[in-house]
Amino acid sequence: MSDTRSLREREKLIFEASSPGRVGYQLPTLDVPAADPAATIPAASLRGEIAELPEVSEVDVVRHFTRLSKWNYSVDEGLYPLGSCTMKYNPRINEEVVRLAGIAHLHPLQPVDLVQGALALMWELEQALIAVTGMARVTLQPAAGAHGELTGMLMIRKALQARGEHRKVVLIPDSAHGTNPATAVFAGFEVVEIASNEQGTLDLEPVRTHLDGGNVAALMATVPNTLGVFEPEIARLAGMLHEKGAFLYMDGANLNAFVGVAQPGKMGADALHINLHKTFSTPHGGGGPGAGPVAVSQALVPFLPVPTVEKSGDRFDLVHDHPATIGKVRGFYGNFGMLVRALAYIRSMGGAGLKAMTEGAVLNANYIRKSLEGIYNLKYTGPSLHEVVFDDSRQAEKGVHNIDIAKRLLDYGFHPPTMSFPLIVHGALMIEPTESEGIQELDAFIEAMKAIALEAEENPEMLHGAPYTTPVRRLDEVRAARQPVLRWQRPRE
Amino acid sequence: MHRYLAGADDNRRMLEKVGCSSVEELFASLPAEVRCGPLDLPPGRSEEEVRREFWALAGKNLTTECSVCFLGAGVYRHVQPAVADALLQRGEFFTAYTPYQPEVAQGTLQAIFEFQTYVCQLTELDVANASMYDGATAVVEAALLARRALPGRSRVAVAGSLHPDYNAVLRTYAEAQGIALTEVGWDAAGRLDAASLASALGPDVCAVIVQSPNVFGVVEDLASVGATAKAAGALAVQAVAEATSLGVLAPGGRFGFDVVCGELQAFGIPAAFGGPHLGFFAARQNHLRQMPGRLVGETVDAEGKRAFVLTLSTREQHIRRAKATSNICTNHGLMALAATMVLSLLGKKGVREVALASHSVAEYLKAGVRGPGSGVRLAFPEGPTYNEFLVLHDDPEGLLARMQKELILGGVATTRLGTDLPRGILIAATERNTREECDRLLDALRRLA
Fold it and tell me: How many domains does chain A divide into?
């Protein structure tokens, strides 16, 4: 049999497929006189045809991107156990409703009378997220988790300024995701890292010590933390922070671990971003877009970004007039399309369904933990919620590292776990199965992980060459960084 | 059980394995004080019921597709090929994660590499990233890049004719970063005022930010602005809110600009009440190490085959943490894919034709406005424009409301954008507006203004 993969594997760049004279579009007939731009715009400000743009037909485009798509792994294909990424199923009904003309084709500057449905939808989503989090209000504007973090930290900064204080320090545990320290700096703070204890969680004492200095603006904590372990002292930490006039910023990346079970409002959080593209099922889209609404405590409500959506009787309005606001954090009002999908998901799940979602996610993670404990090392043994973090220390004795295990998993047909953090676990394998998986898919993954552990014992060399069955083999990443080629250019004749 | 979840029987077998009698035991680490009761949310609904609710919500909005629409001001209604959305709905694209495992993400990676190439071609710059959230945040990143590139300079000269939302977002970020903003006014033609720019510049200015076409739709003299910025030792930054203009207008890259950034929504992305849209960011080669966001580069695999991979990630938050060039992680990758598809379909001929057609429709409208008894007058009769222009009116929202009764969305009232702009209506045209629609607008203006 001939190798049927070869056609797909030879797919060129769209620019290389260009063929003179081909077009992939037809515009409506222009029924006004054609205007020559040179008649009104200075010649120096004009350009001619962009020579390097491709010429391809509509069929060429369909084939090209369909072939490219087949090189991707996706949630639709199978388990995608990236820890802290919550790669759950993305329901198709969400994709359908977001494409309704009365939702997709709304201009953000239409008169508010003509977008009452859109504003109602945003208001309903805010109410739903308040119900989930137990917080006072929610801004839907941030475009992503990191953007939500920044929005929250800017509100904290503004709240301190309103008290005439200019505190500079933000405490961040060493287990945190990289966006936390980056965000704190972009919000104008200095980062002080807090060491985790032997359980990988936060102790009160080091935080108290820093608080005594009087310069701490906030603590940024992920709950449960990046090990998937609940911070047992979180409510007491919040109390301590508040007593000293500081704030608790909660990273909600792992919210999927406790919806309907516990609430950030009860933990004492002052600001919490919610990744709608994690907990609330909006697709990751190969890198985005997401949405990162921020829920806040009463103390931060005056500082919310503008506009807010307000309801008065049956009417909804966009309100810009908030004197203490931090201002705007993005154009218009948020990633509306993602908000629509999230509300559709919340409606589909319902209150009890959301709790069942969390229970399923936590049960799945614990099932994987129980099945692989003893085969892969578990550095921190605290009770797991939605994810479990193994490491490669057993396999490393044979020279096999987490990257080799990850690449070999690709041969078994699974996406690998997260490896780049938490930094407190060397050689991490952070596994988050989500509630979307049934026992058969989990068992298949567990069998693959066991088989790889066996291969690491018996044939470690083989693992260094993995993957063997993917569209491309392991890449030369050093070359990519040393001699950056970041765009196509027409080869010299 | 819920249709998105595995069955109760699975749960029972898994609980046995885990060694728990109930799921509740798995949450024993959560103390009582943080627990909550049942969520105050309606019960889960069937697909049919969800569909019904969203149809009802959608029905309370007037879609631009059922009206005569001349709205712009940063969001434009251009051609939206069916192919792009159909391909975008392939689960292989939209249900994938960020391509951190390149062996199983070559589809996303190659498409982003193509996207970066398109952005470089449109802007005539050397490097482009894999996307930003939107035009406003892209402009912020440009200001932050300039500040990193020129340590010691902490003031940015920013055009008053920058889109008010971009300006507002820039103010929010600048305050936290200790960046001072000096606004540069416009002249009688609606262009950046040369004297005002000269007086705004100084040894502490790290960037000049100018939008072209600006918020009034007026095409700026980028050669002059670029040279002035350079002479003052500042970086020159062009913001673009209407990206199809790049089909006929020479981009900042040609005039020595350091950064061209902004919004690519115009290339086939639905207005969607303001998002998700598509921020883009392109720069000269010498700023590569200071670029925000993800970059895809070409390399080879173990068998020497060409392949693509995320690269130069030592700039990014997951490696550099507090020293990263930006805190961005999730970007707008799927929107970048959409624009890549649309740009591929339009290609060499179409990118220019969309721009020429949009310009032609706008010029037809402008000619009508210039005519006797049009009811309104141009704010900047001498200002060259691409596909959008400002007409003056004392009560723009009232006038728009009267036109709206005839299902004409006649433009954007500047009073909705901010208080510093001349009172009037921004009218934007695209290749999708017909002559009949133009005539209806002109007629309504004559009667109702």
Answer: 3
Residue B335 domain flag: yes
Candidates A28, A75, A476; nearest CB to B300: A476
Give CA separation, B404 vs A76, A489, B196, B298, B427, in Å.
Answer: 44, 48, 38, 51, 14
Lookup result for tokens 């209604």: B77
Side chain identity at residue A4, one-letter code? T
Cβ proximity of B337 and B108 under 8 Å: yes
Q: Does B115 touch chain A if contact means CB atoms closer than 8 Å?
A: no
**Four-residue CA torsion sign, A59, A64, A70, A74:** negative
Q: Which residue's structure tokens are 């504003």?
A: A119
**Structure token pair of residue B433:** 């507006």
CATH number at residue B122: 3.40.640.10
Residue B21 lies in a domain: no
Question: If you average pLDDT over every residue of chain A, what do you get?
Answer: 96
**pLDDT above 50: residue B22:** yes
The count of other CB atoms within 10 Å of the CB of residue B234 is: 26
Torsion angle of C-alpha atoms B112, B116, B119, B125, degrees rounded to 10: 170
The last residue of a domain, from among B340, B356, B384: B340
Residue A300, helix vs strand vs coil: helix
What is the domain range of residue B428?
Answer: 64-80+347-448
Task: Give the closest of A181, A473, A480 to B103, CB-based.
Answer: A473
- Distance, in Å, from the CA atom of A448 to the CA atom of A433, rounded to the nearest integer, reads 14
A60 and A110 fall within a common domain = no
String of b and e for B146-156 (b: at least 16 CB within 10 Å)?
bbebbeebbbb
- Residue A492's pLDDT band, with cuts at 50, 70 and 90, is confident
| Chain A residues touching residue B47 (CB < 8 angstroms) | 93, 348
Question: Residue A156 — very low, low, confident or very high, per pLDDT cuts 50/70/90?
Answer: very high
Q: How confident is the model at residue A7 (pLDDT cuts 50, 70, 90)?
A: low
Residues of chain B found within 8 Å of residue A336, distances taken between Cβ atoms: 272-276
Q: Is the ipTM of this complex over 0.95?
A: yes
* pLDDT-above-90 percentage for chain A: 96
Look at B103 and A90 and tell me if their CB atoms are within 8 Å: no
For A24, the domain range is 5-69
A147, B165: Cβ pair inside 8 Å? no
